[in-house]
Amino acid sequence: MFEANKAAQIARERRAYNITVLGLCETRWTQSGQVRLNTGEMILYSGHEEEDAHHTEGVAFMLSHEAQNALISWEAAGPRIIYASFKTKKENIKLNIIQCYAPTNDKDEETKEDFYNKLQTLCDKLKEKDMTILMGDLNAKIGSDNSGYEEVMGRQGLGKMNENGEMLADFCAFNNMIIGGSVFRTQDS
Known about the structure:
globular; alpha+beta; Swc5/CFDP1/2
């Protein structure tokens, strides 16, 4: 999104597919804030906080009018995590959406652990009764062998689980989440 007119192009695509909350990765925007486009969409963004930071990484949400009306709060958590909370039709239950851009498998262990520690700190703030969706580019390959992770994932993945896949599966198991096309927190019976 660091290129001219890229936000407007993405807004057109969001409307064409009628997406209410669109998560974006690699926005390459620095700092954090919100911007309203001429077309009415709102962008909530989170990037590197330093003023002279390189235009790398970055995450954002693009919200429709409906999503803007339901928005309760949001939090920028650096260039790899942004979170927003929305009202639902069910009283006292919120929809929490966490947009991520996880480090790639070849990054050092400390970088990946820092990412998952920040993600865990955020998840610890969320209420179990609320619905939580973890989405974005998690840079993880979970594979088709779900041995030891039967409660977390099915067998629809391809290939073998990589290190990032194991970190994601462990995170989901710890937080009572299920890996699907996205990651969802299950509700206790």
